[in-house]
Amino acid sequence: MAPWLPLAPDAATVNVAAQADDLDSLLTLTRRLLRLRREHPVLHAGAFEALPPTPDGTYAFRRTGPGGRLTVALNLTGEPRSVPASAGGRVLIGTHRERDNSEVTGAVELRPHEALVIEEPATG
Fold first, then answer.
1. Does the pLDDT value for residue 91 go beyond 90?
2. From 7's CA, which of 32, 40, 88, 121 has a CA 20 to 30 Å away?
3. Residue among 69, 74, 48, 71 at smallest CA distance from 59
4. What DSSP string describes 55-66?
5. Residue bearing the bigger pLDDT, 79 or 11
6. How far apart are CA 116 and CA 5, in angstroms?
7. What end-to-end distance do the CA atoms of the chain give, in Å?
8. Domain locations in the chain?
9. From CA 34, how far away is CA 37, in angstroms rounded?
C-alpha cells in the first residue's frame, strides 16, 4: 500500500530505524536528553534562573533545587561563541558527545550550534 503523503527524498536514511543505532543521531540525542530529565528532577522542578546577558545568538540559564544545580548553555549561531554561563562543573550531555564528562570552568566555549548541560559542584 502506498503512503497517503509523499515521503521525503531522504526517507531511506532519515528515519527511526536508521537513527536508532547511530550514537550521533538526533534521535539518540533526544533519548539521552529525556533520560537526563528523568534522572535530574531539577530540570523539570527546579527554580529557573536566567544567567547574565550572553553574546548575540546565545542563551544560558540555571536550574537549581535540592537535587543540585545544572546550567544549560546554548549557541544558536553558526559561529563559535564564549558564554559566561557557568560556575564550572562537568558536562553531563552535549550536542557533541566528545564533550560529555569534560570539565568546564568559568566561560564556556561553544562551537557553532552547540548546547551543553553542565552539572555544577555541590555548594555548602
1. yes
2. 32
3. 74
4. -TTEEEEEEEET
5. 79
6. 36
7. 63
8. 40-119
9. 5
- Which residue, 50, 69, 68, is CA-closest to 60? 50
Q: What percent of the residues of the chain are helix, what percent strand, and what percent coil, each to the nearest 5? A: 20, 30, 50
- Reported as a single tens digit per residue, the pLDDT across 19-70 is 888 888 889 999 999 999 999 999 999 999 998 889 999 999 999 998 899 9
Note the pTM of the prediction, 2 decimals.
0.86
Distance, CA of 65 to CA of 101 (rounded, Å): 21
pLDDT digits (tens, 9 = 90+) for 18-31: 888 888 888 999 99
Architecture in CATH for domain 40-119: Sandwich (2.60)
Q: Which uninterrupted H or E stretch holds 48?
A: strand 47-50
